[in-house]
Design a protein that fits this description.
Radius of gyration of chain B: 21 Å
Number of domains of chain C: 2
CATH topology of the largest domain in chain B: Rossmann fold
Helix content of chain C: 10-25%
Structural class of chain C: alpha/beta
CATH superfamily of the largest domain in chain B: Thiamin diphosphate (ThDP)-binding fold, Pyr/PP domains
Number of domains of chain B: 2
Strand order of the largest sheet of chain B: 10-12-11-14-15-16
Strand content of chain B: 15-25%
Distance between the termini of chain C: 35 Å
Number of helices of chain B: 13
Shape of chain B: globular
Oligomer: heterotrimer
Radius of gyration of chain C: 22 Å
Helix content of chain B: 25-40%
Strand order of the largest sheet of chain C: 2-3-1-4-7-8-9
CATH class of the largest domain in chain C: Alpha Beta
Strand content of chain C: 15-25%
Chains: A alpha/beta (351), B alpha/beta (409), C alpha/beta (384)
CATH topology of the largest domain in chain C: Pyruvate-ferredoxin Oxidoreductase, domain 3
Largest interface: A-C, 68 and 64 residues
Largest sheet of chain B: 6 strands, mixed
CATH superfamily of the largest domain in chain C: Pyruvate-ferredoxin oxidoreductase, PFOR, domain III
Largest sheet of chain C: 7 strands, mixed
CATH architecture of the largest domain in chain C: 3-Layer(aba) Sandwich
Shape of chain C: globular
CATH architecture of the largest domain in chain B: 3-Layer(aba) Sandwich
Number of strands of chain C: 14
Number of strands of chain B: 16
Chain lengths: 351, 409, 384
């Protein structure tokens, strides 16, 4: 029984929570943790895309927890792909559909292609393939990276997306080493935006801001070409907090300025949600301790660790060219010729 | 939901062209109306990708040609294009083939009929550009069909067979054609290129049926299984591989009718074996110098012959038993190695011995490792191989040895 | 010292995945190490198929003790024992049944327990209250209530509230031939050097309440879920399964077995803001004809996000799962019998359905539910 099309297949921006589509294309009955934000991302992802969608799911929680043979929670067609292959899966699927339609072997119509990966599969192993796919402007596809800041499905190991100092099974806190993981989180959406000027849409989102997230996914699918969305997903298991606080932690990550929400669309960077308000000066960034103290993975932090974390986040907001997006500072001597005004927006003279 | 398939230009006349094995495969890609192919440079297979690119640029064929960022991506791209119903082509060599290993394993597990060539090349380290079969052979347990070509003509023919057999619903398994690096990938030979019309008669459209990944066919492909399900799924692959034997036989008969070539047997190419007492057994281009040696030795009165294996997987056990049981001794020539194996023999050596094990009257089977890294098999080596095979005939235990041929100490 | 007639004994610990992983591990290891003091050998292992564990989803770990290595071999190279002598459920809501794996169907908690075996349950409820939620017994066993509520922690930080010591004390009461109380105490003393911990074992021993259960006792009110596995000739080729149909929830996998709390909704105070429906990772809300959002209890895993995101105080309240006998949706009840529903809401939640009535402070403390705290802390840290 085919999944019906809705109208012409265009995906308008959702105005508010009351306009969120009701149809569920990722339904209840999957073996995810209580409070799994990544599962919520899956639900919102296909809610935004609608039924004329093919989803490719790379190995990780959203493969193993969701899809256990002989059952499935997916209404739309779904196929597994390898850990580092989400970029290739998106590309191969999109290319296959395109040529079959061109040759008249299947009906010519808009079919959304979404390949998802976790932070392990996307930011580490599969980054090369995603990068390659983002250069292929002839093919329409979205790569969605759901980031729970660990290799969660293998029982929580650190990835390049694990925050500074966090405990994982590869970075336990012990008597000799309080922190085994001292690498700062790699800036994936910013990197991809900067490195792939032909990709029309790259964004950072969070399921705590559901409408913002769904609209970002819709923009990605509507603009065409290869696109990328990165969501930050609080994970009760890996981050060690009671599942009921998943939404709250997502809000805190953004409100502390740790995870800026933004999109780069057709070469224009746009801050969204509370991130915009923080940049405008209308909202003050909460101290990172508000976020860190809620999670058992930081329970071993000493004051100096919190200070370092705060310092890095502060730097991101004061020194980066674009907070959360472009990490360079510009040399003082070049700030004038490059027309960089470092004053916060609300203090600048109006144009 | 009728779709209008666009007409393709038909080439009405069979032509004869001078082309390499890689170029011959490119012709097959054109004739088969492949939809998606993914390329990545590594020698010696990538001649096929270069030849295909020229055909596309000059409007001779319409294929989505994607240059990937690595072999793993390459093979994943075509795997997924196949899942949505595209006829696909891909390839690699040596360590490039190994870089794609994960994708290669899952393609067979998923029963997706990807067609590939492996331009057989020695593995690093140490590397060499010349041919060795270990790259293809490394996947021999996973469910890929593995034929080997001797000539550029056969390369093209095997490619057409590959889509026909692999995509057959009774099989639905991927196929990787072994092409010896340099000798076959690069050397140019006279090849008969068939008409489009005849190929269209041989190759039906690719149809995944209710396995097609498309919004009109809501399925979930490959949820994760556990110990309760895996054996049943492996069993299905086993059954498909068993059926492949019969489907190859069928397809071979059709091929012969349409194109007038293919030899008597789909699986074995026998040379002067009718009255032979001692034969050599192997696959790929090593058959060529061995045939030269056979003609020479025959003049001297030796009753020698050759059995060339065309399909390593599915291993044509019955055919091999029937053929080889006629001889006093068989010298199996492996253009591969298998360190630490029984009698330190190569892969073919041990498989042939296993096939013949339960025969009451068995020929002596001697092992030879030759031609690694593309070392030519010269006539003195060929003579050496036959002499050692003949010498082993009267004592079956003298086959419990593997001779490395032409190695300097 | 009584003579041992059996050559090995098997204990399973049934627990809430992740929250009680370390607790289960500590219990199983301690069983083996305590028995070692008598010269027995043993093995402790987790059920491999449960890995990776998911918050709340029931999981099992095992301890097998044998008189020698030869007898132990029968229990090696297995995923799980088919029969156990003792099952220890460290959360009393588990007695409502656990899936044998993911979605193969809810099984009675006593299913692997041998005839005349033991089912230990940590609970603050009485044996009869616990038994009322346990499937009708097919064979006799002894229910043992170990005093104390469910102890929940996280992956990295262990809540050291002595639950493991109390369980070991209670176990010593029912398996004195294999797990002697003095060996348990000696082990605890060695590991912790804390007499308080040792006393907890004694407390578990003394305070454990035994209730023999005859065949036929229990409830038949729980859903019976079965599944027959097909073979390779009927399984679709290419590892393909049918997708879900639009509008359905997965009938093959209902997550209610992973719940320790469930949300009850005050439809009177609901402002129809959509947040609970929107933010539920498990798609457990249905919109009603009047625009309220009701919980589909068959699907709800009890994470509590809805209660947190609901902007109206006490409109959604998380309540101990053991207080409920069925998984029926409740909006129709509210629609047909408004006052009856509100009384039910108040009885279950301890909160008034009338927003003008102030919630007494007492309700914030021991409301009888096993709500784990946000960031459990520990003096001694975890074992991991």
């Amino acid at each position: 029984m085919a999944v019906e099309t809705h109208g012409t297949g265009t995906l308008p921006q959702i105005k508010g929570v009351k306009d969120v589509p009701y149809d569920e294309l990722f339904v209840s009955g999957h073996r995810t943790c209580q409070g799994c934000e990544s599962a919520l991302v899956m639900r919102h992802m296909v809610k935004a895309s609608g039924p004329r969608t093919i989803v490719l799911g790379s190995t990780g929680c959203m493969y193993v927890a969701n899809t256990t043979y002989y059952t499935t929670p997916w209404v739309v067609p779904w196929m597994h792909t390898q850990l580092g292959a989400s970029g290739s899966a998106a590309l191969g699927t999109a290319a296959g559909l395109k040529v079959l339609m061109r040759k008249g072997k299947i009906k010519d119509e808009k079919i959304n292609v979404i390949a998802f990966c976790g932070d392990g599969g996307g930011a580490d192993m599969g980054l090369g393939a995603i990068s390659a796919t983002l250069t292929h402007k002839d093919y329409n596809c979205l790569v969605l990276l759901y980031d729970n800041e660990s290799y969660a499905n293998t029982d929580i190991q650190l990835s390049s997306q694990t925050p500074y100092g966090a405990v994982t099974t590869f970075s336990p806190s012990g008597t000799k080493k309080r922190l085994m993981h001292t690498r700062w989180k790699k800036n994936v959406p910013g990197m991809l935006a900067a490195g792939h000027p032909e990709s029309r849409y790259i964004a950072a989102g969070c399921a705590a801001y559901a409408v913002d997230l769904m609209n970002k996914i819709r923009k990605a699918l509507e603009l065409g070409g290869p696109t990328f969305v990165h969501t930050l997903d609080p994970c009760p298991k890996g981050w060690d907090y009671h599942p009921q606080y998943s939404q709250e932690l997502g809000h805190l990550a953004v409100e502390c300025g740790i995870w800026p929400l933004y999109e780069v669309m057709d070469g224009v960077c746009n801050l969204t949600g509370p991130t915009r308000q923080i940049a405008e000066g209308r909202k003050k960034r909460k101290p990172v301790i508000e976020y860190l103290k809620r999670q058992g993975r930081f329970a071993h932090f000493a004051d100096e660790d919190v200070e370092h974390f705060q310092h890095e986040v502060d730097k991101m907001w004061t020194d980066w060219l674009v907070p959360g997006v472009i990490p360079f500072t510009v040399a003082a001597k070049d700030q004038t010729i490059l027309k960089i005004d470092k004053k916060p927006i609300h203090e600048q003279k109006t144009a | 939901m009728a779709v209008q398939v666009k007409e393709r230009e038909h080439q009405d006349v069979e032509t004869e062209q001078l082309m390499s094995g890689c170029e011959a495969i490119a012709e097959a890609i054109r004739l088969a109306d492949v939809d998606v192919m993914a390329a990545y440079p590594i020698r010696p297979y990538d001649g096929v990708m270069q030849a295909a690119a020229k055909l596309i640029a000059n409007g001779k064929m319409d294929v989505e040609y994607i240059v990937a960022d690595g072999e793993h991506s390459q093979f994943e791209i075509v795997k997924h294009a196949c899942a949505v119903g595209s006829r696909v082509f891909v390839g690699s060599s040596g360590v490039g083939w190994f870089y794609a290993f994960e994708a290669i394993a899952v393609t067979a597990g998923l029963r997706l009929p990807v067609v590939a060539i492996c331009g057989n090349r020695a593995l690093d380290d140490p590397g060499a550009f010349g041919t060795e079969h270990n790259d293809s052979l490394a996947v021999r347990d996973l469910g890929w069909l593995l034929p080997w070509a001797e000539t550029a003509q056969e390369a093209m023919d095997l490619a057409l067979m590959a889509w026909r057999v692999g995509e057959d619903k009774r099989v639905s398994l991927p196929v990787a054609i072994g092409l010896d690096g340099a000798f076959l990938t690069h050397s140019q030979q006279i090849v008969k290129v068939p008409t489009q019309a005849s190929v269209d008669k041989f190759l039906p459209k690719f149809d995944l049926g209710d396995r097609l990944l498309h919004p009109d066919n809501p399925i979930t492909i490959a949820p994760q299984v556990d110990q309760d399900w895996l054996m049943e799924i492996r069993m299905q692959n086993d059954q498909a591989m068993r059926k492949a034997h019969d489907v190859i036989t069928e397809a071979h008969a059709d091929f012969k009718k349409l194109f007038g070539r293919g030899g008597d047997s789909p699986f074995l190419d026998e040379y002067m074996t009718d009255d032979a007492e001692y034969v050599v057994f192997g696959q790929g281009t090593l058959a060529l110098p061995m045939k030269v040696a056979i003609r020479r030795l025959r003049k001297e009165g030796h009753k020698v012959g050759l059995v060339r294996l065309k399909w390593f997987r599915p291993f044509p056990t019955q055919e091999i038993v029937k053929s080889l049981s006629r001889f006093k001794a068989v010298g199996v020539i492996d253009r591969d190695y298998s360190f630490g194996s029984p009698y330190y023999g190569g892969v073919l050596y041990n498989e042939v011995r296993s096939a013949l094990y339960s025969l009451e009257k068995r020929p002596t089977i001697v092992g030879f490792i030759a031609g690694l890294g593309g070392r030519e098999i010269e006539q003195p080596m060929a003579t050496d191989i036959f002499e050692k095979t003949k010498a082993a005939a009267d004592d079956i235990t003298s086959g419990d040895i593997c001779h490395w041929i032409g190695v300097r100490s | 010292m009584s003579e041992i007639k059996e050559t090995s004994v098997t204990v399973e610990v049934v627990y809430r995945g992740i929250f009680q992983k370390t607790l289960a591990q500590r219990i199983c290891r301690s069983i083996v190490l305590a028995a070692r003091k008598r010269g027995h050998t043993g093995t402790a292992f987790a059920r491999y198929g449960d890995s990776p564990e998911r918050n709340g989803v029931p999981a099992k770990q095992f301890a097998v003790v044998a008189i020698n290595d030869l007898e132990l071999e029968a229990s090696m190279a297995k995923y799980e024992p088919a029969v156990v002598d003792v099952s220890i459920a460290v959360d009393d809501t588990l007695v409502k049944g656990v899936e044998s794996w993911a979605w193969y169907g809810r099984q009675p908690i006593w299913k692997p327990v041998r005839k005349d075996g033991f089912l230990l349950v940590t609970s603050t409820n009485t044996p009869d209250e616990v038994l009322a939620q346990t499937d009708t017994a097919l064979r006799p066993y002894t229910l043992v209530i170990v005093p104390g509520g469910a102890s929940f922690a996280g992956l990295w930080v262990f809540k050291d509230d002595h639950t493991d010591y109390r369980c070991l004390g209670a176990l010593a009461k029912v398996l004195p031939d294999w797990v002697r109380l003095e060996d348990v105490k000696a082990l605890i003393r060695e590991q912790t050097k804390d007499e308080g911990a040792v006393q907890s074992a004694q407390y578990g021993y003394d305070g454990a309440v035994l209730r023999p259960v005859k065949a036929g006792e229990g409830t038949s009110g729980h859903e019976v879920l079965q599944f027959e596995k097909p073979g390779w000739t009927t399984m679709r080729p290419g590892i393909v399964v049918d997708a879900r149909k639009p509008g359905e929830r997965n009938p093959q996998y209902k997550k209610y077995g992973a719940r320790t709390l469930r949300p009850v909704v005050n439809f009177d105070t609901c402002i129809k803001c959509t947040m609970c429906w929107l933010d539920c990772p498990d798609e457990c809300f249905e919109v009603t004809p009047e625009g309220h959002y009701e919980v589909v209890y068959q699907a709800c895993i009890g994470c509590g996000i809805c209660a947190q995101v609901c902007p109206v105080k006490d409109c959604i309240v998380m309540v101990d799962e053991l207080k409920f006998e069925d998984n029926e949706d409740k909006w129709q009840f509210w629609k047909k019998d408004h006052d009856g529903y509100n009384k039910w809401f108040e009885a279950k939640s301890g909160v008034s359905a009338d927003p003008k009535v102030r919630t007494p402070a007492a309700r914030q403390e021991g409301s009888g539910n096993a709500n784990p705290s946000a960031n459990p802390t520990s003096a001694s840290g975890g074992d991991d």
